[in-house]
Write the C-alpha coordinates for this entry.
Amino acid sequence: MTSYINVPTKTLVTPENKTFAYREIGVDSTVPVIGLVHLSGNLDNWQPAVIDGLAKEHRLILPDYQGVGGSGGKATATIQGMAEEIREFIHALGFKQVDLFGFSMGGFVAQEVINQEPSLVRRALLTGTGPRGGQGIGDVTKISDRSLARALVTFTDIKTYLFFTRTTNGKQQAVKFLKSLKERQTGRDRSIGWRAYRTQLNAIHQWSTEQPINFSRLETPVLVANGDSDAMVPTRPNSYDLAKAFKNSQLIIYPDAGHAGVFQFGKDFVKQANQFLK
Protein backbone atom coordinates (compact mmCIF):
# COMPACT_ATOMS: atom_id res chain seq x y z
CA MET A 1 0.00 0.00 0.00
CA THR A 2 1.23 3.48 -0.86
CA SER A 3 2.09 5.54 2.23
CA TYR A 4 0.11 8.68 2.97
CA ILE A 5 3.18 10.79 2.22
CA ASN A 6 3.00 9.63 -1.40
CA VAL A 7 -0.71 9.54 -2.24
CA PRO A 8 -1.80 12.17 -4.77
CA THR A 9 -4.10 15.06 -3.98
CA LYS A 10 -7.42 14.88 -5.80
CA THR A 11 -10.16 17.43 -6.39
CA LEU A 12 -13.92 17.11 -6.41
CA VAL A 13 -16.55 19.62 -7.52
CA THR A 14 -19.89 19.13 -5.76
CA PRO A 15 -23.34 19.77 -7.28
CA GLU A 16 -23.29 22.97 -5.19
CA ASN A 17 -20.24 24.01 -7.25
CA LYS A 18 -17.81 23.76 -4.37
CA THR A 19 -14.29 22.48 -5.06
CA PHE A 20 -12.69 20.23 -2.46
CA ALA A 21 -9.09 19.05 -2.35
CA TYR A 22 -8.69 15.66 -0.70
CA ARG A 23 -6.48 12.61 -0.39
CA GLU A 24 -7.59 9.00 -0.35
CA ILE A 25 -5.76 5.98 1.00
CA GLY A 26 -6.48 2.47 2.20
CA VAL A 27 -8.20 -0.78 1.40
CA ASP A 28 -11.59 -1.21 -0.22
CA SER A 29 -14.39 -0.93 2.31
CA THR A 30 -18.12 -0.33 2.07
CA VAL A 31 -18.03 2.38 4.74
CA PRO A 32 -15.13 4.84 4.36
CA VAL A 33 -13.59 6.92 7.13
CA ILE A 34 -13.78 10.68 6.55
CA GLY A 35 -11.00 12.60 8.31
CA LEU A 36 -11.78 16.07 9.66
CA VAL A 37 -8.67 18.04 10.58
CA HIS A 38 -7.91 20.60 13.28
CA LEU A 39 -7.97 24.40 13.37
CA SER A 40 -5.74 25.80 10.60
CA GLY A 41 -4.96 22.27 9.42
CA ASN A 42 -4.54 21.11 5.83
CA LEU A 43 -3.85 17.75 4.18
CA ASP A 44 -0.26 17.73 5.42
CA ASN A 45 -1.25 18.02 9.08
CA TRP A 46 -2.26 14.37 9.48
CA GLN A 47 0.49 12.25 11.03
CA PRO A 48 1.45 9.78 8.28
CA ALA A 49 2.07 6.81 10.59
CA VAL A 50 -1.42 7.03 12.11
CA ILE A 51 -3.11 7.45 8.72
CA ASP A 52 -1.11 4.54 7.29
CA GLY A 53 -2.04 2.39 10.28
CA LEU A 54 -5.75 3.06 9.91
CA ALA A 55 -5.54 2.64 6.14
CA LYS A 56 -4.30 -0.94 6.48
CA GLU A 57 -7.84 -1.92 7.47
CA HIS A 58 -10.01 0.95 6.21
CA ARG A 59 -10.52 3.36 3.34
CA LEU A 60 -9.70 6.90 4.46
CA ILE A 61 -10.75 10.08 2.68
CA LEU A 62 -9.32 13.32 4.04
CA PRO A 63 -10.61 16.66 2.65
CA ASP A 64 -9.56 20.26 3.10
CA TYR A 65 -12.28 22.56 4.39
CA GLN A 66 -13.52 25.27 2.07
CA GLY A 67 -11.07 28.16 1.83
CA VAL A 68 -8.18 26.03 3.10
CA GLY A 69 -5.29 24.41 1.22
CA GLY A 70 -6.29 23.27 -2.24
CA SER A 71 -10.04 23.62 -1.69
CA GLY A 72 -11.90 26.50 -3.23
CA GLY A 73 -14.21 29.11 -1.77
CA LYS A 74 -13.86 31.01 1.47
CA ALA A 75 -13.45 29.69 4.99
CA THR A 76 -16.82 28.95 6.55
CA ALA A 77 -17.92 31.20 9.41
CA THR A 78 -19.53 28.58 11.68
CA ILE A 79 -18.85 25.03 12.80
CA GLN A 80 -22.36 24.12 11.64
CA GLY A 81 -21.54 25.53 8.20
CA MET A 82 -18.38 23.44 8.03
CA ALA A 83 -20.46 20.36 8.83
CA GLU A 84 -22.89 21.21 6.04
CA GLU A 85 -20.07 21.52 3.51
CA ILE A 86 -18.55 18.21 4.64
CA ARG A 87 -21.94 16.55 4.18
CA GLU A 88 -22.08 17.99 0.66
CA PHE A 89 -18.62 16.53 0.01
CA ILE A 90 -19.66 13.10 1.30
CA HIS A 91 -22.86 13.03 -0.75
CA ALA A 92 -20.98 14.18 -3.85
CA LEU A 93 -18.76 11.11 -3.48
CA GLY A 94 -21.91 9.00 -3.50
CA PHE A 95 -21.73 7.57 0.03
CA LYS A 96 -24.88 6.76 1.98
CA GLN A 97 -23.01 6.13 5.22
CA VAL A 98 -19.53 6.91 6.56
CA ASP A 99 -17.39 6.73 9.68
CA LEU A 100 -15.87 9.98 10.95
CA PHE A 101 -12.42 10.68 12.40
CA GLY A 102 -12.50 14.18 13.85
CA PHE A 103 -9.49 15.72 15.56
CA SER A 104 -9.78 18.96 17.59
CA MET A 105 -11.96 21.37 15.59
CA GLY A 106 -12.61 18.42 13.30
CA GLY A 107 -14.26 16.77 16.30
CA PHE A 108 -16.58 19.77 16.63
CA VAL A 109 -17.46 19.46 12.94
CA ALA A 110 -18.00 15.72 13.28
CA GLN A 111 -20.48 16.28 16.10
CA GLU A 112 -22.45 18.71 13.96
CA VAL A 113 -22.49 16.24 11.06
CA ILE A 114 -23.95 13.63 13.42
CA ASN A 115 -26.46 16.16 14.72
CA GLN A 116 -27.52 17.33 11.26
CA GLU A 117 -27.75 13.91 9.60
CA PRO A 118 -27.52 11.03 12.10
CA SER A 119 -28.21 8.34 9.52
CA LEU A 120 -25.10 9.37 7.56
CA VAL A 121 -22.69 8.39 10.34
CA ARG A 122 -22.14 4.77 11.33
CA ARG A 123 -19.38 5.31 13.90
CA ALA A 124 -17.17 8.21 14.99
CA LEU A 125 -13.70 8.78 16.42
CA LEU A 126 -13.78 12.04 18.39
CA THR A 127 -10.25 12.96 19.43
CA GLY A 128 -8.67 15.96 21.17
CA THR A 129 -12.09 17.52 21.27
CA GLY A 130 -15.10 18.34 23.43
CA PRO A 131 -18.82 19.09 23.39
CA ARG A 132 -20.44 22.23 22.03
CA GLY A 133 -20.33 24.88 24.77
CA GLY A 134 -17.67 22.89 26.63
CA GLN A 135 -15.65 24.40 29.46
CA GLY A 136 -12.61 26.37 28.32
CA ILE A 137 -13.27 26.03 24.58
CA GLY A 138 -13.96 29.76 24.47
CA ASP A 139 -10.31 30.34 25.44
CA VAL A 140 -8.94 28.74 22.26
CA THR A 141 -8.36 32.12 20.58
CA LYS A 142 -6.49 33.52 23.58
CA ILE A 143 -4.42 30.36 24.00
CA SER A 144 -3.66 30.17 20.27
CA ASP A 145 -2.61 33.82 20.05
CA ARG A 146 -0.36 33.49 23.08
CA SER A 147 1.22 30.30 21.73
CA LEU A 148 1.70 31.86 18.29
CA ALA A 149 3.60 34.77 19.81
CA ARG A 150 5.76 32.35 21.76
CA ALA A 151 6.37 30.24 18.65
CA LEU A 152 7.47 33.28 16.64
CA VAL A 153 9.90 34.36 19.33
CA THR A 154 11.41 30.89 19.68
CA PHE A 155 11.33 30.02 15.97
CA THR A 156 9.29 26.89 16.62
CA ASP A 157 6.01 25.48 15.33
CA ILE A 158 2.96 26.63 17.30
CA LYS A 159 1.91 22.98 17.73
CA THR A 160 4.90 22.53 20.04
CA TYR A 161 2.98 24.47 22.67
CA LEU A 162 -0.61 23.70 21.75
CA PHE A 163 -0.46 19.95 21.13
CA PHE A 164 1.98 18.58 23.71
CA THR A 165 2.82 18.79 27.40
CA ARG A 166 5.87 20.77 28.50
CA THR A 167 7.42 17.81 30.31
CA THR A 168 10.68 16.38 29.00
CA ASN A 169 8.74 13.56 27.36
CA GLY A 170 6.19 15.97 25.90
CA LYS A 171 8.90 18.10 24.33
CA GLN A 172 10.54 15.03 22.79
CA GLN A 173 7.20 13.87 21.41
CA ALA A 174 6.56 17.31 19.90
CA VAL A 175 9.84 17.17 17.98
CA LYS A 176 9.04 13.67 16.72
CA PHE A 177 5.53 14.65 15.64
CA LEU A 178 6.59 17.81 13.82
CA LYS A 179 9.31 15.91 11.99
CA SER A 180 6.73 13.39 10.77
CA LEU A 181 4.60 16.16 9.25
CA LYS A 182 7.50 17.09 6.96
CA GLU A 183 8.02 13.59 5.55
CA ARG A 184 6.07 14.40 2.40
CA GLN A 185 8.52 16.01 -0.02
CA THR A 186 6.43 16.74 -3.12
CA GLY A 187 2.89 17.90 -3.83
CA ARG A 188 2.45 19.51 -0.47
CA ASP A 189 -0.75 21.37 0.37
CA ARG A 190 -0.99 25.15 0.70
CA SER A 191 -0.87 26.57 4.22
CA ILE A 192 -3.99 28.28 5.53
CA GLY A 193 -4.22 32.02 5.01
CA TRP A 194 -4.45 34.46 7.89
CA ARG A 195 -8.04 35.49 7.14
CA ALA A 196 -9.25 31.88 6.96
CA TYR A 197 -7.41 31.10 10.20
CA ARG A 198 -9.15 33.96 12.04
CA THR A 199 -12.48 32.90 10.55
CA GLN A 200 -12.02 29.42 12.00
CA LEU A 201 -11.04 30.85 15.39
CA ASN A 202 -14.19 32.98 15.42
CA ALA A 203 -16.27 29.95 14.48
CA ILE A 204 -14.84 28.01 17.41
CA HIS A 205 -15.50 30.89 19.79
CA GLN A 206 -19.11 31.16 18.66
CA TRP A 207 -19.54 27.39 19.02
CA SER A 208 -18.21 27.60 22.59
CA THR A 209 -21.06 29.95 23.57
CA GLU A 210 -23.86 27.71 22.29
CA GLN A 211 -25.88 25.04 24.07
CA PRO A 212 -24.61 21.43 24.08
CA ILE A 213 -26.04 19.07 21.49
CA ASN A 214 -28.45 16.46 22.86
CA PHE A 215 -27.16 13.14 21.56
CA SER A 216 -29.13 11.04 24.05
CA ARG A 217 -31.61 9.88 21.39
CA LEU A 218 -28.90 8.41 19.18
CA GLU A 219 -27.34 4.95 19.16
CA THR A 220 -24.25 6.09 17.21
CA PRO A 221 -21.12 4.43 18.69
CA VAL A 222 -18.31 6.88 19.42
CA LEU A 223 -14.74 6.50 20.60
CA VAL A 224 -13.55 9.55 22.54
CA ALA A 225 -9.78 9.84 23.00
CA ASN A 226 -7.49 12.54 24.35
CA GLY A 227 -4.36 13.22 26.34
CA ASP A 228 -4.73 13.81 30.07
CA SER A 229 -3.43 17.40 29.83
CA ASP A 230 -5.11 19.02 26.83
CA ALA A 231 -4.35 22.75 26.92
CA MET A 232 -6.75 23.68 24.11
CA VAL A 233 -9.84 21.63 24.96
CA PRO A 234 -9.40 20.81 28.67
CA THR A 235 -9.59 17.06 29.13
CA ARG A 236 -11.58 17.49 32.31
CA PRO A 237 -14.44 17.88 32.00
CA ASN A 238 -14.74 17.93 28.20
CA SER A 239 -13.55 14.46 27.16
CA TYR A 240 -15.57 12.90 29.96
CA ASP A 241 -18.67 14.99 29.23
CA LEU A 242 -18.48 14.14 25.54
CA ALA A 243 -18.30 10.42 26.26
CA LYS A 244 -21.27 10.71 28.62
CA ALA A 245 -23.31 12.53 25.98
CA PHE A 246 -23.57 9.38 23.86
CA LYS A 247 -25.33 6.18 24.90
CA ASN A 248 -22.76 4.01 23.20
CA SER A 249 -19.29 5.40 23.88
CA GLN A 250 -15.76 4.42 24.83
CA LEU A 251 -13.21 6.74 26.45
CA ILE A 252 -9.41 6.58 26.23
CA ILE A 253 -7.18 9.02 28.13
CA TYR A 254 -3.43 8.89 27.46
CA PRO A 255 -0.95 9.82 30.25
CA ASP A 256 1.51 12.73 30.02
CA ALA A 257 -0.08 13.74 26.75
CA GLY A 258 -1.79 16.85 25.48
CA HIS A 259 -4.13 17.82 22.66
CA ALA A 260 -2.39 15.45 20.21
CA GLY A 261 -2.46 12.46 22.54
CA VAL A 262 -3.78 10.16 19.82
CA PHE A 263 -0.72 10.93 17.69
CA GLN A 264 1.73 10.74 20.58
CA PHE A 265 0.33 7.27 21.35
CA GLY A 266 -0.22 6.52 17.68
CA LYS A 267 0.38 2.77 17.75
CA ASP A 268 -2.09 2.18 20.54
CA PHE A 269 -4.64 4.57 19.06
CA VAL A 270 -4.48 2.85 15.67
CA LYS A 271 -5.01 -0.52 17.34
CA GLN A 272 -7.95 0.76 19.40
CA ALA A 273 -9.49 2.69 16.50
CA ASN A 274 -9.25 -0.18 14.03
CA GLN A 275 -10.89 -2.51 16.52
CA PHE A 276 -13.62 0.04 17.28
CA LEU A 277 -14.38 0.66 13.61
CA LYS A 278 -14.90 -3.05 13.07
The beta strands are 9-13, 19-26, 33-36, 59-63, 98-103, 121-127, 222-227, 249-254. The longest helix spans residues 140-154. Residues 4-277 form a domain with the Rossmann fold fold (CATH 3.40.50.1820).
